[in-house]
Specification:
Blueprint (H helix, E strand, L loop, with lengths): L1 E3 L3 H12 L4 E4 L4 E6 L3 H11 L8 E3 L3 H7 L5 H10 L4 E6 L14 E5 L4 H12 L5 E2 L14 H8 L4 E4 L10 E4 L6 E4 L5 H8 L26 E5 L1 H9 L8 E5 L11 E4 L4 H17 L4 E5 L8 H11 L2
Parallel strand pairs: 1-8, 2-8, 4-6, 5-9, 11-14, 12-13, 12-14
Antiparallel strand pairs: 2-3, 3-7, 4-7, 5-6, 9-10
Amino acid sequence: MLLDGTDPATIARAADAIAAGELVAFPTETVYGLGARADDDAAVAKIFALKGRPQDHPLIVHVADRAHADRFAAALPPVAERLIDAFWPGPLTVIVLRAAGVADAAAAHQPTIGLRCPAHPMAHALLVQAGERGVPGIAAPSANRFGRVSATTAAHVVDELGDDLLVIDGGAVRIGIESAIVDCSTGSPVLLRPGILTRDRIESAAGTALRQPGPTAPRAPGTLAAHYAPKAKLRLMATPMLKAALGVLGSDPVRLAVYSRSIPSGVATGVVHRRMPARPEQAAHELFAVLRELDREGVHLIWVEEPPPGPEWDGVRDRLDRAAAT
């Protein structure tokens, strides 16, 4: 059920539902989230059931502010505090050691927990009003079936999860890919998932270099090898390979789409073509919406031109790499 996010009564109704242990989908600046109160394992179980998500794959807990983060963390190490000061509210999740007996299901029974303070005004209003009703935080993965393309509009959520779900309609999200995730639970910070924030910006705020994930890194959302996948088979291709493949297509390609920066429209008859923006923030903003649109076109294959090199493209490249791995 779509609810107008600009109506104060909508936020109050959604906060009541969250406090009662029900699910609510809501916009953040990154993607739409599917939320339940993080301190209620039975409510969190509804998220896993609706998404078809494995229960050992943890969720991010969204909080209204630093004080609410302290309710879930055993302690916030100095590097986490520096990142929180620099990027909250915003598209960064920190993983820290979890307070005993709190949000066990949301953390997938790990000793760590991922925390984020979203910047979207509707998400913030929901968190504040839920807090007034005794909810310390909202566990919320992306509002879509597990492993599939994330939702960046309210309509995407309804298409994916049905119209029985309460969905706060906040329009299209601003960023379009999920938050960066930094593990701060050990001595040195580790970048587990890139986002729109570049490694350089995160390292500058952290005051130290980010390490690569090792075998003992905590499980984190969106870090499986295969994820973010459209229904069509996606293939990520270097520019010369893509041009060569298009050059040998027959006159009637079988339900093929191309998403590229350098390939002109109409290069091959019968191919559905979408232009990838030249700027990484624009490409991130539209990526999941374009993949959903191409699925609606009924294509069987999506050939995507590899993003350019450079750290500013890491978030988009990560999502495409995982989408192509299915």
